[in-house]
Amino acid sequence: MPALELSAVTKTFTMHLQGGLRLPVLNDVTFAVAPGQCVALTGPSGAGKSSILKLIYGNYRCDEGRILVRAGDSVVDVASAEPRQILSVRQTSLGYVTQFLRAVPRVSALDIVAEPLVGKGVAREEATVRAGDMLRRFNVPERLWSLPPATFSGGEQQRINLARGLLPEHPILLLDEPTASLDAHNRAVVVELVHERKAQGTAIVAIMHDDDVREAVADINVDVTQFAIAA
Amino acid sequence: MSLAETEQPLLIAEGLTKYYGRQLGCRDASFELYEGEVMAVVGESGSGKSTLLQLLSGQNEPSAGRVLYRMRDGSLADLWSLSEPMRRLLYRTDWGFVHQDPQLGLRMGVSAGGNVGERLMAVGWRNYGDIRDVATDWLGRVEIPQERIDDTPRTYSGGMRQRLQIARNLVTSPRLIFMDEPTGGLDVSVQARLLDLLRRIVSEMRLAAIVVTHDLAVARLLSNRIMVMKGGAVIEAGLTDQVLDDPHEPYTQLLVSSILPA
User: Fold this and answer.
1) Could you give the CA distance from residue B243 to residue B84 in angstroms, rounded to a whole number?
2) Interface predicted TM-score (ipTM) of this complex, two decimals
């Protein structure tokens, strides 16, 4: 039984401010991800790779089709679920590392990383200790932990985002360009962590422009251009 | 999902409609709110969002529709079938209301400690020492220096007044809090501090909240659900990030695209 299954997913944007311009992005997206498997989405910029991740996370609304996510003993169709069902799935089962960190004013890097664990019910003290371990793994200097990351470099922000996304060990993980602004050393940390998560049975959908990283972690490549709508 | 499925809604709005004479204030608003959920209501001036808040919080009687609230004993009560004293008790204990203008939510001539303590006395607290201890604790939680406990809010800055109003509302451990433009009229840096504080307290106390705001950044930071209102009607609703990142209605797209990037 797959951890995640998309069937016949369709997405079109209607831009009302541009006279109702319709932008068909995805048509008939169908693939499944098994526990412990990593699927890489490939294709040129604008093909809809990030849109697929956003649809799975419930950040974009799906026009047609089903997005079945296994959450504990039940299966939730994100395409038709109520807001609070999606929130619950995100809290327990679905991790998403976005390309850019959305920094919240006044919240420290350490708290940003610990927050999803606290949301999962882990005591704050323990969550903070584990967040520190994860930041150390990503070589984020300890003097930065207590600072809000708004002023951090791109690479530092991305590592904080990764630490936050990987720490809760959700059974399904979505990664959008996780290594884009990282040096070789930290890229290797990401590869190592992805291998660890796969060994634990995490199902992963990733977008990785770095060929070496993709070859190191992906089991299957899904070419997104096949879901383009014929002009 | 077990938790989400077994839980029962805390507040149910059914077809809430309000006419002021022949003028429509709010039309056919329906939704359910659960414990721990924060819902933002956004829209421009005159969209009906403040009317909706007044209907939900029992300050204004709807022309049609009803508000059902789950009492602490688990029973579901129709707000306007409750007696006036019962409604007032609810208002003093189980609910909080944070006004945009702190002068409406505070007693300006009474000390900060008195403002917080008054809500406790209304629910039966009598021991002065206990009341003062809890008030002191709450002032600390909203980052008001302890030595200002005997000063009146007249001597406070706008941001401090707003934080005091929050302490006064939360001291009785309400389950539901209504907020009307809680950061309106504050400087940006003061807003950030207040928002961070609200976000933390709401999640720690697992409060349900309905926040009326015209500021989409405030909605994104505080809420997990959102309703967009226009001309008295709810035109779009859903997860906050979903509605703001993938807006469907022309008016919502206009709102989202009108934000200036920082």
Assistant:
1) 38
2) 0.92
